[in-house]
Amino acid sequence: KSDSDTYTCDIGDAQSRAKLVVQEIAVLFKQELQNEEAKEGKQVKLTCELSKPDTPVKWMKGDTVLYASEKYEFKQRGTVAELIIRDVKSIDS
To answer: What is the pTM of this model?
Structure first.
């Protein structure tokens, strides 16, 4: 919930008001994804670290958005986001 709003100090006969505007900090990559190589049938974990904790992450393969399944698992703890790809095949590259 945003703290941006108008705040008031009320002393009964008089009031003082101020408007607070909270500017959002841009999210940056502290650690980018690294290229990986794996043998078919293995599991691969891709990890990136963000500058702001619990930032929503969308994982994609090419232009296709990935969804959690038996093939793909997503984990996010604080600033670290992980994509786990199970049973990799050459068609996954």
So the answer is: 0.74
Amino acid at 66: L
**What are the structure tokens assigned to 54, written together?**
């619990």
d(CA 7, CA 3): 10
String of DSSP letters for 7-74: EEEE-SS-EEEEEE-PPPPPP-EEE--------TT--EEEEEEESSTT-----EETTEEP--SSSEEE
Model confidence over 24-53: pLDDT tens digits?
Answer: 889 999 999 999 999 999 999 999 999 999
Coil/strand/helix, residue 4: coil
